[in-house]
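User: Once you have settled down, look closely at the record that follows, taking as long as you need, and be ready to discuss the fold:
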Amino acid sequence: MRTSEYQEHDGLSLARLLHTKQVSALELMDCAITLAEDRGEKLNALCIEDYQLGRRLAAEATLRGTFGALPFLLKDSGLASTQLRSNIGSRLFAGLTAKVDSTLNARFVEDGFLSFARTTVPELCMAPTTEAVQNGGPTLNPWDRTRSPGGSSGGAAAAVAAGIVPIAHGSDGGGSIRIP
């Protein structure tokens, strides 16, 4: 599958292609990684990438849940993942690791999401703008790079809007997903 074709589909449509064996998990992951490498850095939307992990997860994937084996991004909000470290946008927590997956992360996996990177957040997810020194500054809106998507889920919003993945983890405590 070409990246242009990948971007024409939403998450449920890509899941149908996976479940009907019209596309492989590795093909989808390769598209997501190609787009992440091309767009993620320009937008400062991703802060912890593990493309080798993504390709390994996709190569070893068995279809499960609604989404089969769909590329996915976790918000860098400290959501416990044994596979992806976290910073929570702060130098204080740089390289934070987890010994067990959070219940939410385990449910993402059960429903067929393959996490290969984390999305940018403000420091400690405590600001209405998506910018943190730990992440190299502001995240940019892919539709207008003079603006930020805002919110602590701004990295997730920018990644989805840029077509890197059709679905990403976001959360909202005070406008974190409503602002973007």
In short: The first strand starts at residue 46 and ends at 49. Residues 116 and 157 are 16 Å apart (CA to CA). The two ends are 29 Å apart (CA to CA).
